[in-house]
Amino acid sequence: MATNKRTLFLKRRLRVRNKLRKVNTGVPRLSVHRSNKNISVQLIDDVQGKTLAAASSLEKDLGIVGTNNLEAAAKVGSAIAERAKAAGVTEAQFDRGGFLYHGKIKALADAAREGGLKI
Predict the structure, then answer these.
(1) Name one GO biological process term (predicted).
(2) Per-residue confidence at 3, pLDDT binned at 50, 70, 90?
């Protein structure tokens, strides 16, 4: 199998997801997806298989459409923290997928922590 960026990404994603499954204590999972232009996050309850809350940089009410920077990721992080509080969730496991924990992913996680979400 050829090791290109995509296969390395998929291997990293599976490794992160499997580690989260091993230590799962019934806490919802904060799943992050990043594209070249946008970032989105979901708070997922794996036991019921339902999304409890979600936020994305594509949402018009956040006022960050079209921005591709750390500020947009931070706004999405604070938005998911507010929506998690509204859903009654105070703690979550951070599922970064195959994305490295730096840049926009780190900014989103830090903003969610500042918003009161325990990751």
Answers:
(1) translation
(2) confident
For residue 76, the one-letter residue type is V
Q: For the chain, give the DSSP string.
A: ----HHHHHHHHHHHHHHHHHHT--S--EEEEEE-SS-EEEEEEETTTTEEEEEEETT-GGGT-TT--SHHHHHHHHHHHHHHHHHTT--B-EEE-TTS-SSTHHHHHHHHHHHTT-B-
Entry pTM = 0.87
pLDDT in tens, 26-38: 899 999 999 888 8
CATH class of 5-114: alpha beta
